[in-house]
Design goal:
By secondary structure, the chain is an alpha/beta fold. The chain is 56% helix and 7% strand. The structure holds iron/sulfur cluster (SF4).
Length: 395
Amino acid sequence: MKTITYSLPNEGKNSENYYKDVALFTDAVLEEADKSIEQIAEDFQFFLIRNKSKELRSRSEYIFELLTLGVFLRVYETNANSLSLIPQKILSNLVYLRKNYTWLKPFIDPLRGVLSTYFLSGKSKSASTRLQVGVEKVKSLVLWLDAAGEFKQEVIRLKPWINYFSSLPVDNAINQIFESIKFAKWFENKSLAVLGKYTEKVEFFLEYKHHDYKWDEDYIFCGRKRVEYHLNMVGAEIMNRAWFDEYSKTKKKAVLLPACMRAKSKLRCKAFFNGIDYSCSYCTASCRVNQFTKYGEAHGFGVFMIPHSTDFTKWLKRRAGDKDTGIIGVTCALNLMTGGWEAKSLGIPINCILLDYCGCKNHWDKKGFPTDINITELNRKLKLKSSDELVINNS
Ligand code: SF4
């Protein structure tokens, strides 16, 4: 395995130290939030109650949304302020068409690649940056995120915050948005100190490799900053804790593995495809999908291989509202929050596990190499005894 951006084992035997670090750091983040932005999260919660919001979540989830807002404002505010209305509309419509008419993808993706690189990177020579203040800053950011197409769930989560800030006196809204940015700055510094050892290669990738993605559809996705990896890592921990009770009460469990975990290429893999997910046909003993599928057969949980994030959406939609099956979603750090929030919005009990590293052919490596997860973390989610780990050697 080679490290392209992040690595949870970080040259160690496995990623157990990462799971300890991220749990402790998440405690520290929530403790710091208590001292700074907790009141804002609470006020937002009351605002939703007053406005009869359909779905209320835990305080820690709102704290995470506010942290997300602060981090994104720090990372993308300049880009957002230089995006004008017409390219924003064109890009958002392309995202909509791509999602709803998947057969158009081969035509839309090259166009999105060019337009995203030109208009979303904030580097276009014709771009003039408007200074935005208060809630306008947040509106501008959400429009940019929507046009980028990589932040669908984040857009859904951040829109109610626009309504909330708009309901406040202007000065108060400005102060609260400023607090979220201040908290995000604290998070960026602290997360670098604690989680930075797992994401060291992101800087190298952004400096020396990311320019190869210029004009490609995944230019924005692959250009995500180191703090965004840390944000997703902490977000996964916060959401897993908040959602664990509901998930653990389910009668059945299903593990969704990404296709980048298989040992063979798409052409040589013999898995059976039913239009949405693959079932392994055990062609290669060393293949992790094969091993996890057999592990599932022995311990009573299902394993499904999902080829792409759009198929993940289709898979979830077929099970919308199913409270009997607890899903363990496995994905790379950058896709994790989107996948978790998507399942949650469909009423599906879920917990997530990060891939130990990324290596898929779609985004990160010309040939692609098989990815992996921490079996001990999977056992914890499935409440299996540690002796069961002997079935699969994760070293
Ligand atoms: S073992 Fe299964 S998932 Fe792995 S390459 Fe073969 S058919 Fe595909």
